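ARCHIVE CARD
SHELF: 3
SLOT: left
DATA:
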Amino acid sequence: MLTIRDADLYYGASQALKGVSLTALKGEVTCVLGRNGVGKTSLIRGLVGHVPLRRGRVEWEGADITRLTAADRARAGLALVPQGREIFPLLTVEENLRTGLGMLPRAERTVPEGVFKLFPVLRDMLRRRGGDLSGGQQQQLAIGRALATRPRLLVLDEPTEGIQPSIIKQIGAAISQLAARGDIAILLVEQFFDFARELADRFVVMDRGEVVMQGRPGELDEDELQRRLSV
């Protein structure tokens, strides 16, 4: 289980997170929702260790990882699929998939077969450069790259952004299959409510750096939830 307790995060004198707390369980999809600029990406940066918390704790599988580096958090089982994908355009698909394997024991430095079962197009394009793929294919590559590290917590930052509907359906199906395995927790940051509603076991709604709503589908007032997401 992932637990974030009373997290405050600052960029200089500007406070981006204010006492944020949430949990994410293995076998479930926890979806963080909110308008642009409310602190969703700052939450992810604090979680994976890209920006230090000013106050609060990050606990993973019973251990306090608040002071671990981003690399050590990755070794502890956290994997990030960043907003904008951030694949390496001049590397091949296979090379992109292998970029995270150095953190694993030498005997495990292979791309799991499950990555290609979720995204068969990646096997067909192993020798193509990442920059030659479509946006949707690059998103599948970014998710596959994260999964190649065999994570126990998968964090996805707006995976539907700029993606065609057919690929969005494939990504949604892949997330559902991963959650159904029961051995991985999924934290999904999303603005597309219809996509999130189909997947989420729990919603966390943010506004101005704070959690303003939290609960399981059916526990929350959907009209109020939609109002919080409208521009």
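SLOT: right
DATA:
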Amino acid sequence: MPKIIFITSDGTERVVDAATGQSAMEVALDNLVEGIDGDCGGLAACGTCHVYVDPDWIGKTGPAAPGIEQEMLALTDNVQETSRLSCQIKISEELDGLVLRMPEAQH
């Protein structure tokens, strides 16, 4: 079972088990990770699951997908080069140890 490391904006680290096939947002919500709201339920229709993929992992998760994910991120505050919507990151064994950081606020 892959482990995902979520780091809040204040540096608090949470390591949680993730089932393959889940989205990183679902993993966060199932484990009550502070800083991920997931208001739209994973439809990429809001920015409340915005995360920063650790630069060492962006090669495995890939950048934000063209279309709806990039368009939603364009409406989100504090976007960075490694920004993703966690609802669009599907967990696989290859992502064991994935590090995701949260922005100060979700909108």
